[in-house]
Amino acid sequence: MTEQTYSLTELGWGQFYQSQLSPEECSETTPLRVTEVQRNTLDALGEGGAQKVPITGLLAEQGITVGDWLLIDIETCSPLRVLDRKSEIKRRAAGKDYVTQLIAANIDTLFIVSSCNADFNPARLERYLALAHQADVEPVLVLTKQDLCNDPQKYLDDAAREMPGHAVVTLNATSTDAQQHLAQWCGAGQTVALVGSSGVGKSTLAIALTGQDILTQDIREEDAKGKHTTTARSMYQMISGGWLIDTPGMRALRLYDVREGVDMVFDDIIKLASLCKFNDCAHDSEPGCAVQAEIQAGRLDANRLNRWQKLQREDTRNTESTSETRARNKKTNKVYSGGRARAKMKRARMD
Ligand SMILES: Nc1nc2c(ncn2[C@@H]2O[C@H](COP(=O)(O)OP(=O)(O)OP(=O)(O)O)[C@@H](O)[C@H]2O)c(=O)[nH]1
Ligand SMILES: [Mg+2]
Fold first, then answer.
1. CA 81, CA 72: separation in Å to the nearest integer?
2. 266 has which bridge partners?
């Protein structure tokens, strides 16, 4: 069996990446697209086929994720650098520190997967929408398990009312025609990532879109009921020619530095807020509040206002904490350098 090779264009290469290469790099290096990252190595695809690359030096320092483009020295085959990303999807990592975790890079569309059942939760889905908007990536709400639901239209209506202005698709991920419902985002050169809670059908959808039995490659059986849990983020080619990144289900999506993204999810409220009498209106009980007027008139759900304010507060808290952490580190460095300087002076006096 011959190994499949791809042209760079098929892998999603374009002017954005080409323009980052120096004349020397154009002749002495070759680009690879990262399809999976393990602890010390990564898998990548290039014009020469599939390769395993060690994660050392600059790659380890810079951080690398699925979907990234990296340059390889043609002669030594060693990795040189990661190219600037067209987009990056990241969240605040688990733990107390304000550290980000990269989820995927260089994607065009984010399929935010939920189901036509109790998993459908606007407050959670809005977090993913904010993440996509912040990354300048088109979000699509994909609601699976339509076949197990008596009234899928209710979910379409709820999504349109609670998260206006976003593309929403309901489908049966186990059916082969799932592809047709998502075709417009999956064409050649396009990269899509799947995100959402565990068990909503991301990998099932990935099988429908790629035609590959990916469950047997990267997924372990979790229990006798046949539930599968994805453990790695991996990129696969879709039947339509584009690329699909499957990710493990997320329990909590902690946002980080997504103020503009949050505002884009709630841009209808932002527009109303600009009409309030006071610039610093808290949309609570101030006179001349255009947002409250809309709620009183029954045209805006008060829950949406609460959710917007909650996300704004969370982002402000995280962003402030980040700058506090940075300031603290800076201060600590000063103390260290001060200490080093004092020790140097002491040594000089003793000499
Ligand atoms: N009937 C039906 N079953 C579905 C649908 N989508 C997913 N399932 C089933 O739901 C279960 C979980 O699907 P997975 O694709 O493993 O879910 P996942 O989102 O990848 O889960 P994690 O990898 O844990 O994040 C499987 O048994 C699927 O067959 C659907 O649209 N209809
Ligand atoms: Mg999965």
1. 8
2. none
Q: How crowded is the C-beta side of 11, counted as CA atoms within 13 Å?
A: 24
Contact 135, 87 (CB under 8 A): yes
- Pocket of ligand 1, candidates 115, 204, 210, 219: which has the most ligand atoms within 8 Å of its Cβ, to mutate? 204
Q: Residues with beta carbon inside 6 Å of ligand 1?
A: 144-145, 147-148, 172-174, 198-204, 226-230, 248-249
What digits encode the pLDDT tens for the residues 302-351?
A: 999 999 999 999 888 877 666 666 665 565 554 333 333 333 333 433 33
Nearest CA to ligand 1 atom 1: 145
Phi, psi of 173 (to 5 degrees): -70, -20
CA dist., res. 110 & res. 229, Å (int): 20
207 C-beta neighbours (distance < 10 Å), count: 19
Contacts of 242 (CB under 8 A, 6+ apart): 185, 186, 187, 188, 189, 190, 191, 192
Domains of the chain, CATH where assigned:
15-82 (2.40.50.140), 88-246 (3.40.50.300), 266-323 (1.10.40.50)
Atom 7 in ligand 1: which residue has the minimum CA distance? 201
Tell whether the model's pLDDT for residue 100 goes beyond 60: yes
> Is there a contact between 103 and 193 (Cβ–Cβ < 8 Å)?
yes
**How far is 196 from 99, CA to CA, in rounded Å?**
21
pTM comes to 0.88
Q: How many whole angstroms from 6 Cα to the centroid of ligand 1?
A: 30
> How many C-beta atoms lie closer than 10 Å to residue 153's C-beta?
12
Task: For residue range 128-145, list pLDDT tens digits in order.
Answer: 999 999 999 999 999 999
